[in-house]
Amino acid sequence: MKDLRRYLVLKYIQYLVLSSSNAVSTLLGLLGSLYTIIILQSAKVSSKSTAVLISSLAKADILVSVSAVSEMVAWTFDVSISSTAFTSALLQNLLTANTHISCLLLSCVAFEAYLITFFPTESRHLRTVKNARLTSRIIWLLVTAECALFQTDDLLKASSTSAPTCSPCILLFQFSSTAAALLRSLSYFLGILLRIVNVYVYYKIFFSMSNR
Question: Which positions, given as ranges, span the membrane (predicted)?
Answer without folding.
Answer: 12-40, 97-119, 181-203
